[in-house]
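Example record

The entry below shows one chain as it appears in the dataset: sequence first, then structure tokens.
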Amino acid sequence: MSLQKSSAAFKASLSSAASQLPARPKINPPPPPQSAPPTTSTNATAVKRKRPAAPPAPVVYSQPSDTSLQLQHILTQVHHAVQYLKEKERPMTPREITGYLSIDETPQLLHYLRGHPKLKWDEQNQAFEFVPIHNIRSATALLAFLQNQPTAAGISIKELKEGWSGALDAVDKLEAEREILVTRTKKDNQARMVWGNDKSLDVQVEDEFKDLWHAVKVPPYEELPGMLEVLGLKPTSLDPAKMKKEVKKVERKKRANNRRVKVSNTHMSGVLMDSKALRSGLQ
């Protein structure tokens, strides 16, 4: 038997023996550990650690939301248009306003002009008009306004000039005619307030009474309180709380010196001498 045949017979016996062995069981890998569900405290901690959302920026209502250069340009033109209508003191069409401003008439410009609190839009005449605080533009309208006041309230010159450029000249003329009463500033004598002058309250005083009135000599203001005190009268301008009360001086009697002194050197009465006698002798 050759060597090759012996080797082939050995391999055949090994293969048959291997086929007779039981099959090796397959071992599945262990499943991955499942994480425990988060507890309530963990959720609460996660919620607490969450940063709050940033608060929204405050809205400034006095400024437009759109701050583009185009909008700023339109608002500037609206301001100039309001001042132009205030100076002209008459209704004006949009074409007249845009012609003065040298700009085109746009829907956005008309929108801001119609929404301005100082302007009124007349739909029938298609015109804008400036609306002052008081609709007074003449001397007659001013007198009528003051006469119709339920109280004695006046009117400020500042409010009067807002819708009437010739207010100061008319006030000076009416004051000279004694139709109104005017208060003025001390520094530059500018009119501040205006009241109506009710001429029915004017009283004609006779010249004789005027002469008697002016014949009474009134002392100067500085000497008046002293003269009233001399006459036994108390000035009304003197505050009683500030009046100095006269303090009467009470003469106090000198108390006699009754202090008892115990003499302890009586055995030396002949030796000691009074120093007063020595001083008198020296003099």
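Notes for this example: The two ends are 183 Å apart (CA to CA). Strands lie at 119-122, 127-130, 155-156, 180-184, 191-196.
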